[in-house]
Write a structure and sequence with these properties.
Distance between the termini: 22 Å
Structural class: alpha/beta
Order of helices and strands: EHEEHEHEEHEEEHEHEEHH
Largest sheet: 6 strands, parallel
CATH topology of the largest domain: Rossmann fold
Number of domains: 2
CATH architecture of the largest domain: 3-Layer(aba) Sandwich
Strand order of the largest sheet: 3-2-1-4-5-12
Oligomer: single chain
Amino acid sequence: MSKHRILILGGTTEARQLAAALACRTDCDLLLSLAGRTAEPMAQPVPVRSGGFGGSDGLANFLTGENFELLIDATHPFAARISHNAAIAAGKTGIPLFALRRPAWKQQPGDRWTSVRSVADAASALGESPKRVFLAIGRQEAFHFESAPQHHYIIRSVDPLIPPLGVPDARYILATGPFEEAAERGLLTENRIEVIVAKNSGGTATYGKIAAARALGIAVIMVERQQPADVRAVYTVEEALGLVDHLFSPETKRGV
């Protein structure tokens, strides 16, 4: 029996879980692609490639050259560029695409959110008066806050910020989630944090800081997602597995 070739664009817990579930099947041949931005990525349950494709054209050529039959975008909710390239590549090649997207967090009673469209907008939203700011956005876009050097920053990331942020007052924390609410309360209280800057990543691993902010009455500047709206999406690993079954069913292949 021939196996269905599937390329998963990963880097999330959900991508790893989906890959592990599909790896148990005898009808799937998987490759998991990681962006290669993390120095020590977690072990994965299937073969892995690392690095970019060279834009949408490079991804399209890779898909056709390697005879893939399905593309699954299970990247981080803020990996907008690769999601955009995936949509274009799927359109060019005619290879089916769907996205596995964890649901975004929803504002709850007691939350003090200011929603913005980008990290640059978040830096502006901090305002002019100096504040004690917890940056929990990773390291890739932290440079935007050099435009607001009057604040004191606590910056948490998985890998070191190189070069350090060009501001006079910053402290760095290297840590990998999940982060529990109780520990986040302690961190926020000990550092006298007045505002958190976060991305609306969804999921449970990093929600602790949001729950802690609610409990402590701390303001949150929330960067909302900007993702392709015309891509078919599912929101759980179980839904993704069901859609894989549907797409590879004989009826679907015959266009029934």
